[in-house]
User: What shape does this take?
Amino acid sequence: MPETHEKPAEQLSQEARTVLIVDDEPIILKALDKFLSRFNYRVILAEHAVDAMKILRETTVGVIITDYQMPMLSGLEFLNQVKKIQPLATRILITAIQDNETVIEAINDGEIFRFITKPWKGEDLLATIHNAAQKYELSRRNHDLQLETQQVNQSLHQKIEALEQQKKQLELLNRSLKDGMERAVRLCVRVLETSRPVPGGRARKVQVLATAIGKELRFSSTDLHDLSIAALLHEIGLVNLPADVVTRSEAGLEKLSADELQTFRNHPVFGAELAGCLDDSGGISAIIRSHCENFDGSGFPDGRDGEFIPLPAAVLAVASFMVKSKRDMDATLAEMTALSGKRFHPEVVRAVTRAISTLKALRTGSRQSLLLSELQPGMVLAEPVLNTQGTLLLPEGEKLTDASITLLVNHDRISPIQGQIYVIH
Assistant: This one.
């Protein structure tokens, strides 16, 4: 074997530099051990296939070299078995036959990496083993990368599943919160309708008008939601006032004494505080608190003006004015236009003009008297529905649903509904 000063194994990992040599001739083993050790290879020797199998089950190697002619197992049979134990190890066969078709076929099928013919040249042997060690190194890195990729993919899959589960839980929580809020809002509206029937009876109509204007102004879904709830609850603060004060305020604030007027001017504050129990974001409360402010700053309770008034609150102010007005539509619109820039936000007034068709349908829509059996979901009540004791069952402007129709039918069986049922069509 020729001398060489190269140390090709230095750049390889310890596993890649570990070479198992199997040969039943001790002289061959000793020669190969001495040769490869000079180039920083870690050499493990075995004279029999059984010993080699035991070694491979305990030690990871980068290269396996075996003689073709072996007792009990041929070199190819041995390498075929060790492939199952250490599939990444590079397999080399030593043979004295150069044109062995079986060996060549094994190489082509990928069963072995190379074969070395006897007698071999030291440089050729070293290059072959070094290439075999490099192949192991690449195979090991590729294997580790695949495992790492699988672990990352598995981790990502688990995280995606966890996120999906969290998403479902959040959806359930949001649905539960939304349902809870809707129930609370319905309860507040019912309290207002029963304790202060006039303001309570117009709350749903104000909601419809305010939402229509908000859509004309292209409000976001969040602003529309807040405006819709605020419209239903904007006069909830009136439950804190004496009933006679609320009744006289309907005829004009000039009917109130100075003390009563001061109390009345605080109802948006009290209403905002009540709404705050349902509104973590504060959007609904802010709208309710500012819905009595005027564009020129002459309103209450804070005297805000212009752009300091939340736009949804300015919309609510117009919607409330439209519903409360006892004039016809044209006169109401004319008065509202005259107050543009003073009491009302000019942009909101312009939006009302664009939404005039919606407003007319609600203010002047034709009414029709129907039997209970003729009611359909989606119809809007033109008048409040009361029982014979005068208790409010459903307010004017209520959009009928399957549940509300069932409520009326069941209630009529126990306590007959008073008068006719009118809907807008």
